[in-house]
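Entry 14. Ran structure prediction on the chain below.
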Amino acid sequence: MDRAFSIFVHIGLFLSGLLGLAFVAGGAVVINRADKISLIVIGLMMISVGAWGCINAVRQALAVHQ
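Output, structure tokens:
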């Protein structure tokens, strides 16, 4: 995979994680129970994707320096 594209993908995954935090925060303030659950679940999935991207970025950075 091209290095610039890889960096772009990891930045996108990190931003997905941040957007997931916004979804969870939005779910915390919504009064409707069904909307609250769906926002929190979607936010947690986005956070997990963002965390996966950050872990892969760190692994690639460490592999380059070895």
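Residues 3-65 form one domain. Will compare against last week's run tomorrow.
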